[in-house]
Amino acid sequence: MTQPAVGAVTTETFPKLLLEHARVRGDKVAIREKDLGIWQSWTWKQAADEVRWLACGLAARGFKRGMNLAIIGDNRPRLYWSFAAAQSIGAVPVPLYQDAIAQEMQYVLDNAEIEVAIVEDQEQVDKLLELLPQCPRLKLIVYDDPRGMRHYTQPQLLPYGELRDIGREYDEAHPDFYPTELMAGKPDDVSVILYTSGTTSRPKGVCMTHRAFIDAARGDVGFDGFDDSDEILSYLPMAWVGDHLFSYGQALVAGFTVNCPESSDTVMTDLCEIGPTYYFAPPRVFENLLTQVMIRMEDASRLKRWLFDKFMAVARRCGAEIMDGKPVGPVNRILYSLGDVMVYGPLRNNLGMSRIRVAYTGGAAIGPDLYRFYRSLGINLKQLYGQTETAAYVCKQPNGESRLDTVGTPLPGVEIKIADKGEILVKSPGMLKEYYKAPEATAETITAEGYFRTGDAGFLDSDGHLKIIDRAKDVGKLNDGTMFAPQFLENKLKFFQFIKEAVCFGDGRDRVCAFLNIEMQAVGNWAERNGLPYTGYVDLAGKPEVYALLQECVDKVNADLAREESLAGSQIRRFLVLHKELDADDDELTRTRKVRRGYVAEKYAPLVDALYGGADHCEIETQVKFEDGRSGVIAADVKIRDVELVPPAEHRKAA
């Protein structure tokens, strides 16, 4: 095959970066996928060939420069190659969340004017076939996994392998096509359109250029010293900006290896097998891991529990300080070294984190106990901050400067300003070019000076670290003038392993009230250990014993709030445990699991009224959507519990 001359190859676009890796480290593994229990590998040279054939196959089927390509599915090598293939010929990939229902996909398919889609499997094909009458523009659906597709005869369908074969033939017949198209790509061309989660309105298509994402990826790689020896496990949605930065942008800049798990159910097993050096997870994943550890320890032998408790006490005392390179006494250092052999090392290995150099969390606040637990084990867990519109490139915590209450310092090239009402304004190398077909939204979001309005409220402390308070629009006041920051309160509640979600109300009201969701695994295990029978989620959530368990968590949050004079008045006065889990399929959460607070308040208005009306219970019926598309109703008599406040002065005196 004819390749562009080496001297002509630049690294200003992602396809050109791929070509350079094929030249420099062609035999090194670029990407792996676990299939049927076996890890399959592709080198950079093989990946570059696959991208070339796929791009030529798309071109042979009429796909061309300026068009948009939908990509839907779990993390798969062929789907990552689809990004580069579209970009190689001047088209733009548009990833969609794989767990979105068909109706949610329809808006993006229409808005992005999608004519061709590459999807993972039968599940995604079925969604698109359902939408064909509403999306007549969609002409071609390419599917990767043929399982279950034997009897599908729709003319729009084409197996991935067949498209690749078409591409090989097209490439042989037109050897100059691919290199010519690839070299025509410019750094300021749009490289991807990522749709926002649509927490309060329709999702917006964020247009990012090659230059923006590559500059952000280079800044990240330089900040943490990543190189081609690193490994990452790619399991978060491909439509999310973080995965696109970590598993696509940074991988193509640094040349490290991307590993795709077999399924969402095998992520933890695959994590242990790969032992990545670089890892990202939202706080909820770290919480789930810790919950599993604590559940296993409950069932361990008495000796193992004793060793775990004793050495974890040592880790809590000095582990984080050792991680940060701070001075620690010789006795504690010796005990910690012994604990590393007997407890911390085996536990890191069991979690698949024995080789991790850098682990990040972001997207929501992380609990203090959770944060300190991982760092005390010797895992370099840090926090980051960014948005889709900034390529997730705003702040990170430098090594040795990890703090629970900040999201780090501005990354290289990033400028931060604090505007009225504390809103954070950002100017970043990874800035969006525009919102797709939404010039008014672009003008509203970017200031005349070129700063992006994040919508978050916060401030820079004396050390230059950024602290986030809440969404600027969500910060309100109680009727007595006390500041009400709902996300701040909700995150405090979700720090506890028994609480999965929380929704707080209080703006313009006399007091704060809350909805709580139980964490089914943790509460279910607690119930079994305490001999508490239950038949399912609704039954367990309504148990008086569970209410008492969650009230202990609420009491602790109120005690923390009482320490802060400005927040003491925002203690939680009443709460209830919802009879169902908040779910993205029921429109209560976004696909990135952010609570749609306004929608929840409207949907459960009778419960909100009962909280503020003084009732001790409320009967309610709720419409729900099942995974197979059917609808149903969940009925329950939801109990409401009052909470005693902690007097600020009394609490400080007791402390």
Please tag this protein with its features:
single chain; 655 residues; alpha/beta; Rossmann fold; GMP Synthetase, Chain A, domain 3; 3 domains; five-stranded parallel beta sheet; five-stranded mixed beta sheet; 22 helices; 28 strands; 21% strand; globular; disordered C terminus
Q: Which runs of at least 5 residues are low in confidence (pLDDT < 50)?
A: 1-9, 651-655
Largest β-sheet summary: 5 strands, parallel
Counting DSSP E segments of at least 2 residues, the number of strands comes to 28
CATH topology of the largest domain: Rossmann fold
Helix content: 25-40%
Model description:
The protein has 655 residues and is α/β, with parallel strands linked by helices. The protein folds into three domains: 6-210 and 233-278, ANL, N-terminal domain (Rossmann fold); 281-379, no CATH class; 475-654, ANL, C-terminal domain (GMP Synthetase, Chain A, domain 3), CATH 3.30.300.30. Strands 4-3-5-6-7 form a five-stranded parallel beta sheet, sandwiched between helices. Helix 1 crosses helix 2 (44-60), helix 2 (44-60) crosses helix 6 and helix 12 (302-323) packs across helix 14. The longest helix has 22 residues, at 302-323. Mean pLDDT is 91; it is low at 1-9 and 651-655.
